[in-house]
Amino acid sequence: MILAGIGLDTLFLDMKKLGLLSTFLITVFPLIGSGQVSQFVRIPNATQCAADSKSPTESAFLYIDATNAGRIAYQIAAQKKYPQDDFVARAITAYKNRLAVLADGVLAKLTSGQWPLINSAGSELEQILKDCRSDLNCLPLKQKFFMIQNASPMAAVKSNAISKKPSQCLKVEELSALQSHLFFQGVTQNSLNTMAQQLDFIKAQKSCSDLAVVPSQDPSSLLQLDILSLRDDFQTRGFDIWASFKTYLSLAWRYTALPSDDAAFRQIFLNLSLEENMMLFSNGCKSLSRPECTSDFLTSYQIRRMMISVKDIDPLNMNSDEMRDRLFKPETEEGAFQTSFVSKLADNQWVSSFFKSLSSISWGMTAEIKKSTQFFQTLLNKKNSEQLIADLNQILETRGDDQSTLESFHYLCGESNLIGQPEFSFYSFDLENIEKFSKLDSNSNSAPAGVSLRIGQIVSFHKDLYKKLGSVCERANNLEQKQKYNFSKFSNYRPWFKRYLKKYSMFQALLDSEGASGPNVLAPTVANKENYLQLPSIMRDLPPLVFCSDAIDCTRTVFESMAHLNRIALSSRALLQNDIISPGLFNKAADKVACGLVNPWEAQDLVKKKLFMDMISSVLFGATRLPIYLDVGFKPGEVTSFKKLVEDGKIKFDVKVDKPKMLTSLALHLGSLIGVPCSVQISQTQMPAPNNDLPNYFFTGITGSACKGAEKGAMDLTGAMSIGESYKQSSPSGQSMCGSCSINFEQALETSWNQFVPFRFFARLLDSVVRYNNSKDDPSFPHADIVNLSYLSETFHKYGTIPEKCVAPLKRGLKCLNNMCESLITRDLESATQRKVVILDLEEDRQESRQENSVPGVSYRRAWVQMQGCDRKVPVPVTCARDGESYYLNTDRLSKNLYCGAASDESQGAAK
Amino acid sequence: MRNVILSLFFILMAFDAHAVSISSLLETNSAGELEKQTIVRCNAADAELCQNLCSDSNTCIQPEELCTDCVGLKNQTLRTAFTDLPYLYRRSNKKLSSQELLRFLQRTDHMLLNYDSYLNIFNANKKDQIKDQFLAFCRIQTGPNVFDNISEALLIVSLSENQQPDQFVGILCTNQKSETSIFPLAFNPEYSKQPIEYFNSIINNEDGLKLKLSLELSLKP
After folding, report:
1. Exposure winner among A91, A133, A489, B166, fewest CB in 10 A?
2. How many distinct structural domains can be found in chain B?
3. Which residues on chain A are in Cβ contact (under 8 Å) with B32?
């Protein structure tokens, strides 16, 4: 999350609005003015983190795993008698270098606008991708990519990059204080101390294009990709940039030759399944793709779980019910999860060990697909449901009085009833997902060799079998009753069945008691092993591949395989598609937010309402009517700032009001709120007055809200639970506007400004705004802190620790000086003049301090400042109380003396 | 009776190996790239084949097609090649003629897999076992093991338009005299009844009908 393209002055001015404008912010960016590169880290609190999930990230990590490149090289070295270690290291290094250079180049091409976004208006690429069914090896796609690349070749990236970098790519050796936002939620004195202690360990980060590396056999590499210059439409297009990045990177890997490539591997590397060997994930709470309440997105929780426990190797055993249950789990459990998550992060091996478990899960899933589909392929090649039922009846005929046979039937019928009719089952088969999955298996890569079945055929076979099984189970049950058998060994059910029932405490207790009673568990054995379904080998000394021993075993395997295919289908898109995996690792609440279960803005909404009420009351008490109203031609819902409304002439003032005076008062009292991008809200509680020509929309204040809209969706818990249907929330119309606020207007019937008393109105309004700002410390309120790492380091080295008095300024990205006023003034003057403040003396406002009702503490009205390169102090008018309240400094009208006369016009111009 | 007929057929066929030797190696080409190459060597009797293939009557070296995007844990086709091939496939008993071999070599919609292929990231430590499995397809299934002197087996994998491994379509068997024979593969009928059609177009090209008839004859009990 890095910004550099925007002017520093703008950035600093915006720093005041951090609490409100969190989503437009940055995590880390270079500070030019200080003469050395220093960095800001943005640390959102838990609620802000949840809210951030709806915004596109400006920074992402790309994890590269070159293990397969190494494996291939190892075997080639063996065949060609090359020195193995050297050759493997050479291959791994060549692989990592090529990807790093490509990633750097592709992102630069995209962010500089030289390559079109895949789904930009009129993009042919999107249509070609559709026609190619997202197969990146498809010829038309290759041709199109060549055209795009020829128009703006990759080699031109570097030369462009020098003047104004739109993005940067860094090699991350290990996580450090620069990534503090991954470790902390919100800033405290403790966390600042921890961060400060880590500062000296930050290693210089190399650019991705820096190829001077010693070849090594370490297969993993972590790159940090930052978009530096955010376009105005980043909120809406950010997700498209990352989606396009993934596709272009895949295409470039296949079709772009780089001068730096190691020629030996040019052909060999094309064998490798690139997408499988890398992972792109957001560097923080924001998202890479638009969060939607779908099974794919819910899988991210399961993927996150892999980070804390490699042993928890089967986290993908959830069905849709379980996914839903998980969503409702209380936060306390999540809290413990977060703790272990962070401790795992601190381990620098986390990403590679995480990726290994992820790969082993995918590997396990493909093995499962192979096993299940080969089973169905062989079964359906030989039998239809009638034959299988006939064979079951045959067993009942011949061995109907045999205890072990009836016991096997008992478990078979229990399992089949759990799945039951796919449409009504409480195990919830997600037919839609299975259908999606069947499209996936038409891709030759994921369909096991020789499996000609479509999933649809398997599903209808299963349904058919279940229907016919009813009479068989009834018959077996009657025999069981007759013999007075009592089979209740829970442990004899198949693992998928037990795993599902275990979530009910009753069954868990049952299983535990059986476990305690010892291993004397009767396995459902069949007297005569028939090898009912098997495939003989072509080799005489290789035993046949046995799928199931008899008709009972086979029928149970049908249900078991269905359960396995179902859960694979649920997470197939996240894990099996030929796409670069991109889980949201650092946002524990993202899925809940996407599904409408958590509203991160809830607490804020309450405060917001309060502010709104205050503002209304200020209107009521301070003035009967406000002398500000909205132009008739204005469309509500548009995003703008109050300042811009005024500039554009959309805001009209009553003729009786002195406009400049009014504006100055507004600027003073609305403070930072005045420039914040806001949506314009008009409450139309009353009917328009008949025969009234005036647009009676009165300004009722500005309300801050971190995000608006898009929170309508809620999960329907009443209907049949099926992901993709009832999880689907009502799609929000348009993009939610995170980090914005609203400028409120209210329609009124009459116009009468006569009783307006500005003073009382603003006194009241100021109070509301102050209260609003204070409420930002509430942990349930979305809020992000900004820490300037060089200031943090400076403070730490000065005091040996972070003193309590420095927490407040450091949290706001300020220098820790004698008081908050000094910090704020220094920041604004340095950013406006691009020079350092050498001396700063504050002059007390004696008049204000003597007043009994004034803000406690000292107030200042003037600062005496000496800037670097000047030989004397100059006065700067300022308004500030000791803790930084009611701070106001007009940087637009700074004395020329601050620039010591020299180059003042130029600097001033630049500052603006 | 069936076994006797089949055995006789294979014994006859054993003498009918082409005097062409085909191997597949990883070499460094002139651009310094590691490249898979098919090397075809013809003796005097089959010189015409090499002549037609590359205008050289002795040796043809052709760059081989490679599957792209295929080496990954999720790739089911390659996984099958090195794991359960002996269960899922059977070898057709029809050996292709020189003409058919030529037509096959002229096509670019396939790749060749050695038992020790570097593409095997699945179970590379089981090379001996995989070698036995590949060779088993060259040996006859019943009767005397006249093909025991087979020294090398190459699996033929058809490639889709997008260079993806599609099916296992045939096997190239080379005996110790460096004579290579080529056989189509079929599914184990207990696994799938779907025909593998890759070689149909090669067989049907000219004398397809004749060969098809003889294939049917040979399979009759």
Report:
1. A133
2. 1
3. 263-264
B59 within domain boundaries = no
Contact A390, A469 (CB under 8 A): no
DSSP annotation string for A761-772: HHHHHHHHHHHH
Calculate mean pLDDT across residues A60-84. Answer: 91
Residue B146 belongs to domain spanning: 2-15+66-219
Q: What is the mean pLDDT of chain A?
A: 68
The answer to whether residue B153 sits within a structural domain is: yes
- Tell me which residue in B67, B141, B190 faces A378 most closely, judged by beta carbons: B190
Element (H or E) spanning A869, and its range?
none
Tokens 């804020």, residue located: A604
Residue B103 lies in a domain: yes
Q: b/e per residue, A101-115, with b = 16+ CB within 10 A?
A: bbbbbbbbbbbbebb
Give residue A336's pLDDT: 54
Burial A528-554 (b: 16+ CB within 10 A, else e): eebebbbbbbbbeebeebebbbbbbbb
User: Is the C-alpha dihedral spanning A315, A320, A324, A327 positive or negative?
Assistant: positive
Q: Across the interface, do A538 and B86 touch by the CB < 8 Å criterion?
A: yes
Chain A touched by B160 (CB under 8 Å) = yes
Question: How many CB pairs below 8 A link A and B?
Answer: 170
Q: Measured in whole angstroms, how far is the alpha carbon of residue A835 from the centre of its chain?
A: 38
Indicate yes or no: CB of B190 within 8 angstroms of CB of A274: no
| Whether B89 contacts B188, CB under 8 Å | yes
Q: Considering only CA atoms, which of A534, A565, A554 is closest in space to residue A368?
A: A565
Whether residue B36 is contained in a domain is answered as no
The reported pLDDT for the residue numbered A430 is 54
B-chain residues within 8 Å CB-CB of A542?
86, 133
C-alpha dihedral sign at A213, A214, A218, A219:
positive
Using DSSP, how many helices (H) and how many strands (E) does chain B show? 8, 8
User: Is the pLDDT score of A341 beyond 80?
Assistant: no
Give Rg (Cα) of chain B: 17
Token pair 């902390």 in the structure block, residue: A184
Per-residue pLDDT, averaged over A746-763, amounts to 43
Q: Residue A543: what residue type?
A: P
